[in-house]
Amino acid sequence: MDPMQKMWLSMIALLIMALSVVIVTFARSKTKGALRFGLSFVAFMMMVVGFIAGLASIT
Description:
This protein has helices at residues 3-30, 33-58. It is mainly alpha-helical. The model has no long low-confidence stretch (mean pLDDT 96). This is DUF2768 family protein.
């Protein structure tokens, strides 16, 4: 992977993780019940994907 691809991958990973923080903040402050769980779960999965993409951009 060339340096430009690594840069784009790391930027995408950062954006995914930032979006997951926004989603979990919204879920915990504005929703209840199953919707809250669903949004939190989606945000957690996005955080995991962002973490893996961040690791891939380092190596």
